Amino acid sequence: MNQGNHYKRKKQIRTxxxxxxxxxxxxxxxxxxxxxxxxxxxxISHFNSLEEINSFLLQYKTASIFVYIGLQILQIxxxxxxxQALQFAAGYAYSFWFGYxxxxxxxxxxxxxxxxLARWLGKDAMHLFFGEERFTRFVxxxxxxxxxxxxxxxxxxxxIPKDLFVYAAGVSEIKMKPFLFLSLVxxxxxxxxxxxxxxxxxxxxxxxxxxxxxxxxxxxxIGLLQRNRFLRWADKTYQKMVK
Length: 243
Hints:
Elements lengths: L1 H38 L1 H4 L5 H10 L1 H17 L5 H12 L1 H35 L1 H12 L3 H10 L6 H8 L5 H27 L3 H20 L1 H16 L1
Helix pairs in contact: 1-6, 3-4, 4-5, 4-6, 5-6, 5-10, 6-7, 6-9, 6-10, 7-9, 8-10, 8-12, 10-11
């Protein structure tokens, strides 16, 4: 009975500490944008349209690069933010190659920070935030022997939910370096596509933009509908590799 009470108390303490950590994190995530919004409204007014964004970025070109990279980092940390829209804006503002470069730098730092942020917050906080059953399923995949190949397929195929994987990786047994490498390589085709669409839109290349957009939508639909088949294929490929 005493052991049961002791375990229950330890769990309550861990939950309390996890809530405090999450509140601190949310304070930073919400507090910084709120501070800018209420104290520098003129800064926000520069982002009402693509033309205004482009004008602002041209006016403050060097500083804007760091702002964009910061936003891309934030997009990885706050996984519900749409990364494609941000990368489209990068292609529009900086051209394809520079837009891709700044995006991949932001994604790299964002993945690194989120990985260790999840490790600092711990499993209890992740369960509170994402739901224990769903999150445990992600961690189980990353702790399995087939983790690397499944991870690559998940990041490569559009339409497969992947936002939780960075957080799950942080509390799993997977190492940082291979996770970072595989996730970046897997993300690259979709990331390049988003940046290219922004660049095409800026250069009035509407035919190419429409074709690329159709390809992206079709790929996303296939990824959503066939995600289980892709994952089974990854499993079979892994089994063949280890024989």
